[in-house]
Amino acid sequence: MSTLEVTFVASDRTVWSGQAAQVVVPAADGSMGILPRMQPTLAVLGDGPVRIISEDGSVAERTVHGGFVSVDTDTVTIGVDDAELLDADR
């Protein structure tokens, strides 16, 4: 099974890094799901949750307010100013 190599960074730290089966981001024009072998993409992020689903099904989720996502050859890079834990995770 193919996986995604994900790097999720905020301005002051690495939020999450590793392999994932799927990533969901709040693109400026709506939610965008990212799967392996996806066409290269660059998108502006809006406000909402970034959800990273690992190969074992576990989910890492943070709220962002803008930023960008880049997808190229199963490599996903997410850059934001800040990433906050969701209220349910606190």
Note down, in words, how this protein is organized.
Strand 5 and strand 6 form a beta hairpin. The chain is 0% helix and 68% strand. It has strands spanning 4-10, 13-20, 22-27, 30-34, 41-53, 59-72, 75-79, 83-85. The chain has one domain: F0F1 ATP synthase delta/epsilon subunit, N-terminal (ATP Synthase, domain 1, Sandwich), CATH 2.60.15.10. The protein is mainly β. Strands 1, 2, 3, 4, 5, 6, 7 and 8 form an eight-stranded mixed beta sheet that branches. The mean pLDDT is 93.
List keywords for this structure.
mainly beta, 8 strands, globular, ion transport, transport, membrane
What does the secondary structure layout of this molecule look like, with pairings?
Elements: E1 4-10, E2 13-20, E3 22-27, E4 30-34, E5 41-53, E6 59-72, E7 75-79, E8 83-85
Parallel strand pairs: 1-7
Antiparallel strand pairs: 1-2, 3-4, 3-5, 5-6, 6-7, 6-8
Coarse shape: globular
Q: What is the CATH third-level topology name? A: ATP Synthase, domain 1
Element-by-element helix/strand order: EEEEEEEE
Q: Stretches where pLDDT falls below 50 for ≥5 residues? A: none
N-C termini distance? 33 Å
Major sheet attributes = 8 strands, mixed
Would you identify the CATH architecture? Answer: Sandwich
Measured on Cα atoms, how large is the radius of gyration? 12 Å
